Please model this.
Amino acid sequence: MKIAMLFRRVRPGQWRLVQFLVAVALSSFATGMVLCLIAIRPRALLVVAFWVVMTALNAIILGWLSGCAQRTIRHRLRVIEEELERRAEEYATLNAEMRRLDLMKSAFLATAAHELRTPLTSLQGFSEILLIRGDLSEEQRRKCLTYINQQAIHLATIVDDLLDVSRIESGEALKLRYDVVDLFSVVEEVVTAFRISAPTHHFVVEGPGTLALVWGDAERLYQVMQHLVSNAVKYSPVGSTVTIRLESTDDSLKTSVSDQGIGMTREELAHAFEKFYRADLSNLAPEGMGLGLFMARHIVEAHGGEISIESTPGVGTTVYVVLPRYKKPGNYSGSWHLCLSR
Model:
């Protein structure tokens, strides 16, 4: 067994040298033994018989060595073949992933151009109206200015999201301004805005029955809830209900945003938190750059929380956000100041 293990360490190109050395050694040994026998007992028949036996033994040993070499070579070829197959599968997977990312990049560039063009077109159009037309009433001027302000805020939000993604990709941590935040107040403010901007949907907010306090950045948490409610509105039919529910435990606050929309498949769920990912890349797809869930995950994780998704195609989607609950210090005797810095 040890001899076989030793021969396995011999490289395929060295086997001829090994066989030659073994043959020389055996032949020298056989010749020496024959000469000794002739000197000791010069009987030709015995000498010939011994020479024949040694020659046969030499052939047997050389055959065994040749078999070991062939088995070792076959084993190594099989290992190399398996390694090549594994590498080929890895390269195929990487190529497929590169093609998918390239497609996502192309789709993102087209979507980003569209998302940026829309508010810029509105800004240009309404500003031209204010510059050219002098017969506008004060109310009409106010409406134009209000719309310009809304589009400027929307444009700033898009740019901020892109800058946040750039910071995350470069390894820079998100900047958070911590304070005591009433998460229920954040949710109510988000829903109030959507009741105005999306009057075709119904919104239901269920509170925890107690103070929903967390230690975090109110602006960032507002951003998370805004992304989640926005997705629920965009991917659910007109007239459907979006439900936001807050549940409180001793250590955490669990917020869920549920819709009655198209839902997601398992494959779509696997990529849901990737940047720029959009399940529907057609021209009929809802607007957006595919940054909402990507940013939401990083903001939630920066707060020490967790985010997850449950979805059924044709039924709807529910996104869960779990954040550590802020506990009142033991020596605190005053009233709570609910912070929502907007």
